[in-house]
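User: Could you walk me through two proteins back to back? I'd like the raw sequence and the structure tokens for each, with a short line separating them so I can tell where one ends and the next begins.

Assistant: Of course. Protein one, sequence then structure:
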Amino acid sequence: MKKTVLASLLIVSGLMAGAQSQPNFPKVAAPPRTIATATPSSFESPLVQGTLILSKIFKQGEGKEFVAIYTLTKNDAYFNGRKPIQISLSRQSFDSVFTKTTADLATRWPALNKYIEENKLSLTTEKAWIDVITHFNGTRY
């Protein structure tokens, strides 16, 4: 019985070895990607760092042009589950984020609103958002 099982295994292994139709050549590794050959689909640039982080993300849109997307993140485990909040450069986006996201931001909204009015910021430019977030990070309430 052992001889027939052994003979069967040898026959099957011999058939399988002969069934390979393609030679087993060693694979050549792809050349490493360099900055000159890489084509990133997006990259991030922090504009303001601190307790509240304002970032600008460039993502490749339709075709080959890049689109700028702005996000806010807070160094706090409870702030939106550590996920960035996408914002637009508008007063409506500012009010929405600072009144509806967390109680901490809602308590700071009146003072930030006063800062915006005193400095006549429109919040439709990147520079205005940088000023407000820098003020937020530098002020203790």
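----
Protein two, same layout:
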Amino acid sequence: MSHLKRTTRIHAPLTEVYRLAHDPKHWSDWYVGISDEANLESPGGAPRSLMVGAPFPLTQRVVEDRLSGGQAHWHSKVDGPVERVAVTRACCLLMLSGESDWSYRTVNGDTELTVIMDYRVPSAMIERPEDRQVVDRLEAQCLERSLENLKRYCETAH
């Protein structure tokens, strides 16, 4: 299991940050690699999205979702039915199953957001020991850029 933890401070009210980060219709506005999807509901009502233009068949189950006072918390479990999805002949996306924990708190009128991600790198993708480090580095960069995007997105008027 791999583990990431990142914290950022956003100069916007907690309720606004939570609303924008929490709504899957806005994920493509700030989360790196997620494309717009006109229909966020797939057959059976499970949320779905596109990742770099390819269907990304993940099931995201929300375990906790609460907003009260100056704090909020959102926790989900993610399962992929396959270990990877072909985008092109030369590009595959990893299906990283695991858990995601987003904690928000008000600090001097700003929002402090801490994201913890625990995920499994598919064993089929690990041919050499350094492969896991490459995947972990890419996941860390993706999360960091996504949080930078979310910060910019929330700090501009909508």
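Residues 38-53, 85-93 have pLDDT under 50 and may be disordered.

Let me know if you want the two compared in more detail.
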